[in-house]
Amino acid sequence: KARELADSKQLEALDFWMNGESQDENRKIEEVMAVFEALDIRNQAREAMMQYHNEAMGHLAAVKVADAKKKGLMELSEMLFNRDF
Questions:
Q1: What DSSP designation does 23 have?
Q2: Are 6 and 31 in contact (CB under 8 A)?
Q3: pLDDT at 23
Q4: Single pTM value for the model
Q5: Do residues 35 and 14 touch, judged by C-beta distance below 8 A?
Q6: How far apart are CA 35 and CA 11, in angstroms?
Q7: In this predicted structure, what is the pLDDT of residue 83?
Q8: Contacts by 29-36 with C-beta closer than 8 Å and gap 24+?
Q9: Cα separation of 6 and 36, whole Å?
């Protein structure tokens, strides 16, 4: 998604840091994260996660099984969706 949203300068930075063989891994992480933050990639990812989660919950709700049998899977899904990363 970052490549779709990036301007030419950001694309150049991403290409340099993602495709190059940097000796300074910490700087590489900092530079890529700076581009991601400028592009608000965290919120973009969160929105995509929400769409997929809602779609999955809709499919799970359509399964013709007692809700009690779906409970564990629904709880796991909620836990994964709400985890911090």
A1: S
A2: no
A3: 80
A4: 0.70
A5: yes
A6: 9
A7: 87
A8: 35/2, 35/6, 35/10, 36/2
A9: 9
